[in-house]
Amino acid sequence: MSASISAQSAFLHENGPIYPVIITPSFVAIEALKLEKKDVPFIKVQALFDTGAQTTSVSNKIIEFLKLIPRGSAKVYTSQSSKIVNKYDIALEFDFNMYLNMLRVFSADLQDHSIDCLIGRDVLQFGVFTYDGPAQSFKLSF
Amino acid sequence: MAIALEQEYKYFISHLQDFSKTHLHEFVLIKGEQVVSFFSSYEKALREGLERFGNVSFFIEEVKEKEEVHYFHQGIDLN
């Protein structure tokens, strides 16, 4: 384990473990953009660590902002419905020296509009995630 | 948001059983209803798709024995 964060929130129970991340196109897409001498878009958003999500998802407005292009589709179930959704490639960067250069994510309309990314177990599988309710803190180590 | 690769997705699902007999755990690259090829990694399939078609939509998925479905418990509206 070489990279980690420890964060505290007075509203951890209400809001969940939220942490800022930077989202860009995947490294392969960045290579293509650089060859075309185009700017590489990036955006910093609030992400929720969501152990109930199998796969990371990103809000539609971020998909549109980054001009991401679909590279697949998959069937997704929630407690209310199921649907076929688009899959996109992104890179995900944390401010604690952790960078995933290729991650396949879903697009979604997130009901909490202050959150633009749900980080699922496809990311958490690489690290140790600790939720400490009494201390109102969480920790993630890779 | 509209499903951009519905044709490719349906083609993939309808041929998944056949694909899995000879290409299990490889990544298939599909455009329209045409299989371009199978690759050992997602990255290789993506690079081939970009080289062949440019930066447009195309379908890449890992071949598994049956369709993979995904689950969410958080409040999201699928679209």
How is this structure best described in words?
The complex is a heterodimer of chains A (142) and B (79). In chain A, a hairpin with a 3-residue loop joins strand 6 (82-94) and strand 7. The mean pLDDT of chain A is 91. In chain A, the strands form 2 sheets. In chain A, strands 2-3-8-4-7-6 form a 6-stranded mixed β-barrel. A 3-stranded antiparallel β-sheet of chain A has the order 1-10-9, with no helix packed on it. Chain A has helices spanning 12-15, 27-35, 60-65, 121-124, and strands at 4-8, 18-25, 43-49, 57-59, 72-77, 82-94, 98-110, 117-119, 128-132, 137-141. Chain A has one domain: Cathepsin D, subunit A, domain 1 (Beta Barrel). Chain A contains 4 helices and 10 strands. Chain A has 142 residues and is α+β, with helices and mostly antiparallel strands. In chain A, 35% of the residues are buried. By secondary structure, chain B is an alpha+beta fold. Chain B has a domain at 10-62. Chain B is 38% helix and 25% strand. Chain B has helices spanning 6-23, 42-53; strands spanning 27-31, 34-39, 59-62, 69-71, 76-77. In chain B, strands 2-1-3 form a 3-stranded antiparallel β-sheet, sandwiched between helices. In chain B, a hairpin with a 2-residue loop joins strand 1 and strand 2. The longest helix of chain B is centred in the N-terminal third of the chain and has 18 residues, at 6-23. Chain B is globular, with a radius of gyration of 13 Å. The mean pLDDT of chain B is 89. Chain A binds chain B through residues 26, 28-29, 32, 48, 50, 52-55, 57, 60, 63, 69-79, 81-86, 89, 102, 104, 106-112, 118, and chain B through 1, 3-6, 8-9, 42-43, 46-47, 49-50, 55-61, 67-79. Strand 7 of chain A pairs antiparallel with strand 5 of chain B.
